[in-house]
Amino acid sequence: MNSTVTFYVTRHGETLLNHLHKAQGWVDSPLTERGIQAASQLGMQLKNVQFSSAFSSDTSRALQTGKTILTAQGQNELQVITDKRLREWCLGCWEAENNDKFISSMMNELQIQNDFSELNFRLPEVHEIIYKSDITGMVEPFDMITDRLESFLKDTADKFTHLNNPNVLIVTHAFTIKTLLYLFSKEMLRKKPKIKNVDIITIKWDGKSFSILA
């Protein structure tokens, strides 16, 4: 029988654009001091977890968060491996837009009355607005995002499933984590409407399917 693989999936620490309340997809910006401190605190909270491997998206904010977590956690010898499949959504012409304007535009378009959890629950429709309004040609179709995330998780689970119940650290982004919730526990999109900096969810692979633990 295969052992289970547990993925600890977190969002990067606060960045300069987060601090300025700007939307941030493929655009990158450095962690703030507050972001670095929060990543360190998360590392200390995870000090009793032994990680077999650590991955981040290929953004500097995710990579720096991963390294900071592992240093505080006591496994700084573990390399953080970057993987493009863990990238945030590309937001196209919404990149670096004011967050409040971005959210209110999505709510107006979908005729949602100030209900953030409803906005999250309709995640593919939010993506469709971004996709249709894109003038950069860089926004991926929604199924391309879900495919890359599932392929990353399956490839990684296969790689570590021979170990004794391994733990894997993943540092990624808010919309990416929402997409994982949409794939494996859609109802949680209502219960956890906002993915804050260094929020963490746990995904378990039992050899057959993925499930969200928290």
From TrEMBL:
Domain of life according to the entry: Bacteria
Pfam families to which the protein is assigned, alphabetical: His_Phos_1
Transmembrane helix keyword on record: no
Cross-referenced PROSITE patterns: PG_MUTASE
GO molecular function: fructose-2,6-bisphosphate 2-phosphatase activity
Key word Transcription regulation present: no
InterPro entries listed in its UniProt record: His_Pase_superF_clade-1 (IPR013078), His_PPase_superfam (IPR029033), PG/BPGM_mutase_AS (IPR001345), Phosphoglycerate_Mutase (IPR051695)
CDD domains hit by this protein: HP_PGM_like
Gene3D superfamilies registered for this protein in UniProt: Phosphoglycerate mutase-like
GO-annotated cellular components: cytosol
Binding site for substrate: 11-18, 61
Gene Ontology terms: biological process: negative regulation of glycolytic process; regulation of pentose-phosphate shunt
Keywords, in A-Z order: Hydrolase
Cited SMART domains: PGAM
Active site per the UniProt annotation: 12, 88
Name the UniProt record assigns to this protein: Histidine phosphatase family protein
